[in-house]
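User: Please run a holo structure prediction.
Assistant: Happy to. Please share the sequence and the ligand.
User: Here you go; the ligand is 2-oxoglutaric acid.
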Amino acid sequence: MQPTPFTFIPNWLTKAEIDMLWPILLKLPWQKEDLTLYGKTHPMPRKVIWIADHGVKYRYANKDHYPEPWPSILTQIRLKLEQTLGHDFNGVLGNLYQDGNDYMGWHSDDEKSIDDQSPIVSLSLGATRKFKFRAKNNHCDQSSIALTEGSLLVMPAGSQKYWQHTLPKMLKVTEPRINLTFRVMHSNT
Ligand SMILES: O=C(O)CCC(=O)C(=O)O
Ligand SMILES: [Mn+2]
């Protein structure tokens, strides 16, 4: 397999930060949305929320998503990310997986509204889930990594063009997981 460009940082959040963040995140206005694929509409197998700077919308699943404001705790996390990576972000997509039945299929984060010159950074809380990735030109070789609580996965600028990822079902998992993927969006799309 080609060397993957992703960087994994376990325990990026402290236990105290996790304990503070978790109950606040759970209370956010999570949305259960529909997903239309090949002309068929299904409920998305997770809940989502789009939090971003004023006016920064995100178009995915054929729909414009207008942002919720940053809760102050997430502004602090965004600052900590900027200190770690030397990069600022103007939005974060949250995913709430109630248990191991919830999942996300194979995809790249390559919508036109995302700035592909910036990294996409994924922060995990709650249940540990497996994250798999593969090169777009070779679906047979797949690698996986356990996204443990408090960990950060950095997908560098440009990597979405060549790589896909998925968060598969894990039926043994009975606990919820929250994922926050920090992104830079073009402001005028
Ligand atoms: O939940 C995860 O770790 C993956 C989330 C993801 O790929 C996305 O939001 O685009
Ligand atoms: Mn993704």
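The helical segments are 15-26, 72-85.
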